[in-house]
Amino acid sequence: MHALDAGQLNRLLRDLELTAPVAIKRAAPHAEQHLWLLVALRRTDVREDVAFQQRLARHVGLRGKLRTRKHALFGAIEALKALERPAFEDVLLQISELTGQIEKSVASSVLALLDPEQPTIDRDLRELLPRYGFPTLAEAPMFDECVAWHRRLTGLFEQVIDAPRWVEISPRIDAGLAAHGDAVLTEVRKLNLQLSHSRRVVALMPTLEPVRIVPVRGALPVAPAEPMPLRGAVRLHLCR
Fold first, then answer.
1. Is the C or the N end of the chain the one with fewer CB within 10 Å?
2. Contact between residue 81 and residue 47 where contact means Cβ atoms under 8 Å apart
3. Which segments within the chain are labelled E, that is strand?
4. Under the phi-then-psi rule, with left for phi > 0, alpha for psi from -120 to 50, and beta for the rest, what region is 208?
C-alpha cells in the first residue's frame, strides 16, 4: 500500500525539484558530518573516542536527559554495532530506556549510522510531510505509534525513490553535496536531507490548491460590490 496517492506524490516531487538548489546548499554540512561519522563508526570504539563522541553529539542534537547520560548512550551504540541489521524498535527501546521518554529523533539518527538505508525522524520532516497528506506524528507519541510511523516513513521513501522523477532529482543532489572519500550517500539519506532542509522553503510556497470557503451559519449574503464610475481621466500608478 502506497503512503501517498498519485496526486500527493506528484506535489511532493514537484516541491523537491523546486527547492533543490536551496535545500542542497543547506544540507551539505550535515551530509559531510553524516559521512564522516558513518566511516568512523566502523573503526572506532564509541565508548572511548572523545572526538567521535563530540561530533556525534552535535549530529544527533544531544540534549536534556540524554546529554546527562551520554556515556550510557555511547555504550548502547557500541553494543548495537554488534547487530547485523538492527531494527528501529530495537534502537528506539534501548535509547529511550535511558531517559524514560520516546527518543525518536536521536534513535533514528543513530540507526541511520548503523544502517544508512533507514530514514531519520526530525522536526522539519514531521512538519513538512503532513502538507502532502502523510499522517502527523505527535511530539510525544506512544512507542508503538512511533514505530508504526517510522515503518510508514520507510514506505514513503521507497515510493519516492521508485518514482521516475526521482531519477532526475538525485543527480542534482549529488552535484550539490560534498563527497567524503569513498563513502557515498544512499538514496534514502539524500532524500532525507532534501526533505529536512526544504521545509522552510516549501512553507513559503503556495499550495496551488483551491481554497474552499465555508459559509458561516446565520450570516447574510454579501452582494458583489458594483464598480465605481470613473469621472474624468484617471491615471493608474503601478507599485514597483
1. C
2. no
3. none
4. left
